[in-house]
Amino acid sequence: TDPPYAGGGYDMVRCENGTFTIVTSNINGIYLYNIDSDGNVNWVQKVSTSQSISTLKPNITNNGSYFIAGYYNDIQNKIYVIKTNSNASIAWSNIYYNTSNDIYNIKTILTDQNNNLYVTGPMNSGGTFIYKINEAGFWIKSIKTSDYFGNSTINGNSIFTVGNKLTKIDSSLNIVWARSLPRQSYQVMST
């Protein structure tokens, strides 16, 4: 089965068993596809009938369930999060509103060792937002920074982001440190 036309794009996460799970959306909803390393489809699961979500990002928790975060591209700047069980059936879905209507997009979603979800992205006014949501779907905390975060990764329960600075953020969303990236030239290592 080929994935349907994707109006909201595609994104993918690698699973511990060596398979890949793809998330995509079209006018009929949001779908998860699990494929093996030869491109064969293991299963397909429709996880939502919502039609106006874009920039879908998947992540897998340490117990094999999935988080999918998307962005409602309308005037209310909403983030839509779906949590599935390990068999890709829906555990819950929630909408998180941004009262300042300042969310531009979703850049990254991460899960920590406790299966908390972190959703990051740029804001219309500049800077970056980070939302922390627990595994049960309850919003824990959010922050806004004046720095732009590009890509983010998680190590243990610390978030590391890189944009115009390299920043370390703890699991309570406190900035531990932020360092400017060097602007001098260095010799590039060859491999």
Q: Could you walk me through the main structural features you see in this protein, from its secondary elements to its overall organization?
A:
With 191 residues, this protein is mostly beta strands. It has strands at residues 10-14, 20-26, 29-35, 41-48, 53-60, 66-72, 78-84, 90-97, 108-111, 117-122, 128-133, 139-145, 149-155, 158-163, 165-169, 175-180. The protein is globular, with a radius of gyration of 17 Å. It starts with 9 loop residues before the first strand and ends in an 11-residue tail after the last strand. A hairpin with a 5-residue loop joins strand 10 (117-122) and strand 11 (128-133). The model has no long low-confidence stretch (mean pLDDT 78). The strands form 4 sheets. The chain has a 4-stranded antiparallel beta sheet, with no helix packed on it. A 4-stranded antiparallel beta sheet has the order 5-6-7-8, with no helix packed on it.
Top keywords for this entry?
191 residues; mainly beta; 4-stranded antiparallel beta sheet; 16 strands; globular
Task: Give me the side-by-side strand order of the main sheet.
Answer: 1-2-3-4
Number of strands: 16
**Tertiary shape:** globular
Helix and strand element order: EEEEEEEEEEEEEEEE
Instruction: Report, as a whole number of angstroms, the end-to-end distance.
Output: 40 Å
Radius of gyration: 17 Å
Helix content: under 10%
* Helix count, DSSP H or I runs of 4 or more residues: 0
Which whole number gives the mean pLDDT?
Answer: 78
* Sheet having the most strands: 4 strands, antiparallel
The helix/strand class is: mainly beta
Strand content: over 45%
